[in-house]
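Input record (one chain):
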Amino acid sequence: MHADTIRSINNLGSLLCSCKKHDEAEPLLRESLAKHRALLGDLDESTLTCMGNLAKFLEERELLVEGEQLYHECLAGRRAFSGEKDQGTLARIYNLADLLKTKGQLQEAEQLFREELEKCREILGDDHEETQNSIRNLAELLEEMGQVDEAARLRAEVPDSEGEEEEEDGEEP
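The corresponding structure, as predicted from the sequence alone:
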């Protein structure tokens, strides 16, 4: 089977997911991943994309154990394929951390959220939107874990997420 055909299977599976046709989507996502692996190997970008799509699907269907396994595999593949300083790797770190948080594995999630924030700061800088999101994500987790002082320090680093505008020249409106 040609790689473009396999990508089309994955795209159709993803489309069916977005249309909430999960029973039709799952076999296509699984088939696509199996065929990508067979044709292109585990460290191909298309294979890793399919792996991430299936992991996200499983997470949304609350099949968290299998989703976690795929996220771990996808993150390891991304690290090997793209390296540590790649936004795709950062996204996979976030995906796994978020799933672990959902499962209640808060310490493991914290380690990954901290890693993601450190790498966002290094790669993107403190003012980048993704870095700011990473700060908010870690702060939210820390609040959930009862570490409110550290969470407050982190939240102080980012502009108000409500979208309030700063006053110019210190003048009152």
